[in-house]
Amino acid sequence: MSATTRPLRDPKQDQVGLKNMERLEQQRRQKVARSRSDDKDMDTPMNDDQYTYPKTPKTARYNGPHQEKIYKNPNLQRKFNEQEYNDSEQILISDQAIAHSIDTSLPMIRIHCNPSIRSKETGVQFIKDFMKYIELNFRNEYPRHKDPIGLDQWWLQDNGNLFCGVTDDIDFYMYLCDVSHYPSSIGNVQIKLEPPKQLPAQNSVVIKFVPTTISKDDVLDEMKLRFSSIFMVNEMIGTARSSARHIRVIFKQQNEYEKIIYDGKIVIQGLILDVDEYLPPPKILICTKCNLPGHIKKACQSPYIICRRCGQDKENGDSHTECAIRCQHCGGNHISTDYKCPTIGNFRKNLLDKLKNNTDKLPAHVRMYIPIDCRKPNDRDRILTSSRRGYSAPHPPMTTTNNSSYSPTKNFWTSRQEAANASMSKEYSAIREFDNDLNKIKRDFDEEKNRINRLYEKQIETVKKGWLILQQQIRAQNECLASMQQVISTTIDCSVSLSTTNNILCEFVKTVCRDEQKEHIDSMKNTNGVTMTHLMQLKDSFQREMIQYSTIMHKQIELYQLPMESIFSSQNG
Ligand SMILES: [Zn+2]
Ligand SMILES: [Zn+2]
Ligand SMILES: [Zn+2]
User: Fold this and answer.
1) Phi and psi dihedrals of 251, rounded to 5?
2) Better-scored residue on pLDDT, 387 or 288
3) Ligand 1 centroid, distance to 292 Cα (angstroms)
4) 65, 167 in Cβ contact below 8 A?
């Protein structure tokens, strides 16, 4: 693949790194000092204005900086020393330089405070109030981030004017890099984030061979449609060709970074472009006192601070912001910490050789880019990675894909560039946590389902009982009505026949009685006739009504029965 011959390194970043080497070195020194706090030869790095606190139990589970592992591992140190260069012409590649070169821990966050934080108590109150403010908004923006958030270390610098902190949580770090997430003040302290000068290697991807016809902003616009957490889009100047260059994209959220790495492709203006993880080149340790690579200021032999521009004593009274640039190492027209300098360049080559020859001793998480000038003519290996045996990379949590760009040999997890153990255990604990959450949700759901089913069955049972009682009632009422109907009909019939008998009797009595009594009997007979007619009418209307009632009742029973039977049958079936 042609990409193997093209440099991925971002020289701009190297420049940024150089400019901040002093700061970086200071930071690294503090870390080293922290990890070597039991070393009696070293002075305590903290002056009266600096406070450092032991890790809280919350953050103690994170591993310390990578150096810690190397310094504390006597075997590793010995192995490196055995192969130390003996050639006096070459600058010794110290363990410190090795540790520094592969250190990918996140830069520190620096916050300017006004008025300055003078006491430990004020500092503690400040960070408590600050975290309270930050956490609330952070949780809203990163709903999937369930881990506790906090700093691994914090301390005060510059007489309390600077609040500094480090974290290895990339999501939290990216959140803290955004100035819009800061309030203007915490309590009565006005705060201002010092914009980070170094870009993190984490959460960074490279979109390869983007045609020059597509601008950086075009890439940003199209990516914004698919990703919500883009932190920065940068052209990688060292990769520029006449028709294309690589573009580096940094994400604020790790899950979006993981998604694009997993996809391995992105479509910009209809073109399918390859996406790869961004690998940082190994960093060069340069002394801030004498500008030579390979050691720190504390170990420096130089009697005075040497100007990076002119190579003279920085305290000789000249203005060293305007002095003539002449490299102290080679006399060239560049500052003495420039990667262009053969001294720095050679050191870098030697360092890379040493790293490449000792890949079995590298921590398992290391994945770095080998700059093209540090490769042998036929050496096409552009990735520096640990060859430690017995280390097996965990597989990505997704199922296999046909996407050819996603090579199965590529280690999905180590691309995070985090401390191996901390990262792995964090990933695994996150996966486990997620798994547990899923199981819990499933259990809760099943329990709820069973509860609802039981309730439903109970209710159906009650309805069934009610329905049976209702049916019995209706039947009893119908029987009662039927017998009443019969009684009433019989009574009417009897009354009618009694009236008839009465009429016959009246006729008979008329033949035997006196004339004055006949009139009385006639009126009795008339009354009897009226009663009989009334009874006959009553019987007719009663019978009609009974027929209507029974029709309605049958219809009602039918209406009840249909839904009830369907409920009972569906419950059984
Ligand atoms: Zn030095
Ligand atoms: Zn100077
Ligand atoms: Zn030079």
Assistant:
1) -105, 150
2) 288
3) 6
4) no
Kindly give the distance from the C-alpha atom of residue 331 to the centroid of ligand 2, in angstroms, as a whole number.
Answer: 13
Mean pLDDT for the chain?
76
Neighbours of ion ligand 3 (CB under 5 A): 327, 329-330, 332, 341
Spacing, Cα 223 to ligand 1 middle (Å): 45
Q: For residue 299, give the ligand nearest its CA.
A: 1
Q: What is the distance between the alpha carbons of residues 45 and 310, in angstroms, rounded to a whole number?
A: 30
Cβ atoms of residues 206 and 236 within 8 Å: yes
pLDDT tens, position by position, 520-563: 888 888 888 888 888 888 888 988 988 888 888 888 878 877 77
Strand, coil or helix: 235: strand
- Ligand that lies nearest to the alpha carbon of residue 328, given by its number in the listed order: 3
C-alpha 328 to ligand 1 mean position (Å): 13
- Flag whether the ipTM exceeds 0.90: yes
Closest ligand relative to 346 C-alpha: 3
Which residues crowd ion ligand 2, with CB under 5 Å? 307, 309-310, 320, 323
Calculate how far, in angstroms, residue 296's C-alpha sits from the geometric centre of ligand 2: 20
Closest by CA to 420, choosing from 64, 127, 140, is: 64
Q: Are 472 and 512 in contact (CB under 8 A)?
A: no
How many angstroms does the Cα of residue 179 sit away from the middle of ligand 1? 35
pLDDT tens track for 474-506: 889 888 988 988 898 888 888 888 888 888 888
Ligand nearest to the CA of 337: 3
300 burial (CB, 10 Å; 0-12 / 13-18 / 19+) is: middle
Both structure tokens of 14: 């190297």
> Which helix (H) or strand (E) is 30 found in, with range?
helix 21-35
Tens digits of per-residue pLDDT, 64-90? Answer: 333 333 333 334 333 333 333 333 357
From 430, 383, 388, 427, select the one nearest 407 (Cα to Cα). Answer: 383
Q: What's the gap in Å between 309 CA and the centre of ligand 2?
A: 5
Measured CA to CA, the distance from residue 419 to residue 261 in angstroms comes to 19
Q: Token digits for 29?
A: 């020194």
CA of 312 to the centre of ligand 2 (A): 6
| CA 345 – ligand 3 centroid, Å | 9
Enumerate helices (H) and strands (E) in the chain, giving the number of each. Answer: 12, 12
If DSSP codes are grouped into helix, strand and coil, which group holds residue 295?
A: coil
How many CA atoms does the CB half-sphere of 37 hold within 13 Å? 10
Asked whether residue 14 carries a pLDDT value surpassing 70, the answer given is: no
Residue 347 CA: distances (Å) to CA of 238, 306, 337, 418: 20, 19, 12, 25
Relative to the alpha carbon of 318, which ligand is closest? 2
pLDDT in tens, 450-468: 999 999 889 888 888 888 8
Concatenated DSSP letters for 53-66?
Answer: -PPPTTTTTS---H
How many angstroms separate the alpha carbon of residue 293 from the centre of ligand 1?
8
291: left (phi over 0), alpha (psi -120 to 50) or beta: left
Q: Calculate how far, in angstroms, residue 324's C-alpha sits from the geometric centre of ligand 3.
A: 14
* Amino acid identity, position 196: P
